[in-house]
Amino acid sequence: MTASAQGLGYKTTAPFAGGALPFWVGFPCLLYGLMSLSLRELGELPLLIAVASAAAALTFAGVWPIRGRYMPFFVFSLVIFTLSLAQVMPSSWTKIHDENAALRQWFYVPVLPILIAYFTLALRYSYAFLQKNIVALVLIAAVLSRMSQHLHGIYDPETDVFFYTLTNDVAIVAMLFLVLLFREKRHWLVDATIIAFAFALSSSAQSQLFCLVVLALRLSRRPTLMLIGISAACLSFIAIAPFFAVQLHPLDHNTAVRAILWRDVLQATADTFGLGVGYGTEYIKHRFEEIMPWGWTIGTGPNDIFVATHSSFYDVLLREGVIGLLLFCFWFFHAIRMPARATLHERRFAACVAALLVINSAVNVGLSSISFLFGSAFAVALLAVQRERFEARHGQAAPTARAAALHEAFPQPATRG
Fold it and tell me: What's phi and psi for 163, nearest 5 deg?
């Protein structure tokens, strides 16, 4: 058995149906993901070009992005957005309403499936190239990411070594790093050394936590069970933390601030009888006297409506209430499900990708902020392509044109002679 067959690499001789045109048409989308920090300084135009290029690529490929389990969440979210524009949603401590802000806050809902669909198409087309040139691609992506960080000027080069919060660029680099790590099987000590090196290059609690999770999953004999445990731990933490903000403050200041933000969301949910406050209002009360001697705020007036709750789950709960959160979870946990009949090595890889999505969505705005959306969409697409490859390998696809394309794109791996 070849090294690639032992790991994640399956030789492919033909691109996925759709060819090169959709891939290159949507390429600005990938470029924006890697350099979003600096490109956002140029205003909304680069973002609109990136999303439009992805939508055009899907049009050329004949793909409709909003479907499946995402459709109920999208439809419900559209209803809430419409009611928000009509200003008929209930209110809590919220005082501001801005229709332009409502559109900006809701923007991620239609854009997320477009990004996922394009990245899925792109990975289908380029997977063989990705496997063959993964070292060079990791280096190129890392250089583009670091260039974007320096151009933006948000990080201190003396304290922020490389991997900071898992924003678009860092998340994409992390996904490519995982492909490199799991491309072939190595002794666990070698992999542990590689992960330790990545940990040393991390300068935020979030990215360091992700490195530790990757190490644990790499060593685990039951990665699916461990992923369930990680997910349960993250969700339990964000559910309990709002009641212990003061106790969390000595441990981590940022976590204590998040806990107060989440407590405000719970209050707003209770005040609106679980309906949420809709779109176009501020995200925060910015009352932090419990942990600071003053009421911290990034700005006043309309500026506050763009400060999110630092959790995609709480963002959805605040805007769309309990029903919206349940529909979001209905899609999310299906999107990160483990592939059936995969090898232990493959399940470890899939669990690492899913863990990034869980961490990024639980304690940050991984799926509800443009700063994170491209990286998270890339991760969802990578999981989807892995499941398709396993489906093609085991002959589980239905006898349709899609199945034929899958088997053409992902032939069975080499076996022992």
Answer: -80, 115
State residue 202 phi and psi, 5-degree precision. -95, 140
Domain count of the fold of the chain: 1
Phi, psi at residue 86, to the nearest 5°?
-80, -5
Is 415 a member of any domain? no
Q: CB neighbours of 178 closer than 8 A, spacing ≥ 6?
A: 214, 349, 352, 353
Q: What is the pTM of this model?
A: 0.86
Q: Does residue 334 fall inside a structural domain?
A: yes
Instruction: Give 44-65 pLDDT, tens digit per residue.
Output: 899 999 999 999 999 999 999 9
Q: Contact 286/305 with Cβ under 8 angstroms?
A: no
Helix (H, G, I), strand (E, B), or coil: what is residue 403?
Answer: helix
CB 351 within 8 A of CB 213: no
Answer for the pair 206, 363: CB distance below 8 angstroms, yes or no.
yes
pLDDT digits (tens, 9 = 90+) for 238-249: 999 999 988 888
Task: Establish if 416 belongs to a structural domain.
Answer: no
Tens digits of residue pLDDT in 192-203: 998 998 888 877
Residue 220, judged by CB atoms within 10 A of its CB (0-12, 13-18, 19+), counts as middle
- What single-letter amino acid sits at 72? P
Rounded CA-CA distance 164/319 in Å is 28
